[in-house]
Each structure stands twice: as C-alpha cells, then as structure tokens.
Amino acid sequence: MPAPGHPDTDPAYAELAELLQALEAELRHAGVWEPAPPPAPALASPLPFCCDTLRFTQWLQWLFVPRTRALLDRHGHFPLKSAIRPMAEEALAGCDWDVAGVIQLLGRIDQVINCLPAGPSRAGG
Predict the structure, then answer these.
(1) Residue 32's closest CA among 48, 55, 16, 49?
(2) Confidence class of residue 10 from pLDDT cuts 50, 70 and 90?
(3) Which residue has the higher pLDDT, 100 or 3?
(4) Which class is 11-33+40-122 in CATH?
(5) Within 13 A of 29's CA, how many CA atoms are on the CB side?
(6) Where are the strands (E) in the chain, listed by range?
(7) Contacts of 11 (CB under 8 A, 6+ apart)
(8) Phi/psi of residue 71, each to 5°?
(9) What predicted TM-score, i.e. pTM, was given to this entire model?
(10) How many CB atoms lie within 10 A of CB 114?
(11) 28: number of CA atoms within 13 Å, CB side?
C-alpha cells in the first residue's frame, strides 16, 4: 500500500491532473491552443518560460502542460515552489480574450504544487 502523500493515493495529484485538463480546455476555448508546435529551437530557450522565443500561451501548451503531465505519469518530483500565476498576470495583460479563467487555474495549480509532499527534489535541492 502506498504511503500517504504518494501519487497513487494523494488527491492533490488527481486534482492537478484535472486542473491541467481544465487549463487545456480554457486555452482551446480562447482560441489560443495551436495545432502545430513551434520550431524545436524555440522550445529549447534557456530563459524562463522561453520568454524570448514563445508567447506565454505557447509555453503553457508545448512545455508546461506536457511536462507536468509527464511528472504526474511517472510519479516524478515537482519543484519546491511554483509561481506561474504572477507570470501569467504579466504576460497575459492586454490580451484580447478573457484571461481570468486561465489565471485562476494557474493560481490553483500553483497552490496544489506548493502543497505536494516533499520528495527528494522538494527537500531543498
């Protein structure tokens, strides 16, 4: 039987999966979910959020959502601190679509990730 806080038993992991689905749906509804990925070099930027090569919504679609799903699938360790909402508030300011749902979802995703139990990579290293 998995220990408390294990991805198979902790409801936070299931909530995170649901939040990722809701985020994808919100981005699709807004019409910013793209059918084809950007060129590989654009996805390989060393800067946070690939801010020099991608729009924030592209980063969400092509890097954040798939990487977070992969961590869930392999029971990987999440970062100690997640703060995507503040970046979203800045990056999406002035958009011509209603960004409130995306920002709210990212805030909740931050909260869930920040409350996940400590694993080896969450213990400060």
Answers:
(1) 55
(2) confident
(3) 100
(4) mainly alpha
(5) 11
(6) none
(7) none
(8) -60, -40
(9) 0.86
(10) 14
(11) 7
Q: Rounded to 5 degrees, what are φ and ψ at 80? A: -65, -35
Residue 43 one-letter amino acid: L
Domain ranges of the chain: 11-33+40-122
Q: Pull the structure tokens for residue 86.
A: 């503040």
Joined together, the tokens standing for residue 109 give 């995703």
What length is written for the chain?
Answer: 125
- Extract the tokens encoding 7: 């991805």
Looking at beta carbons, which pairs linking 53-56 to residues 24 or more positions away fall under 8 Å?
55/91, 56/87, 56/88, 56/91, 56/92
For the chain, give the mean pLDDT.
Answer: 90
Q: How far apart are CA 93 and CA 90, in angstroms?
A: 5
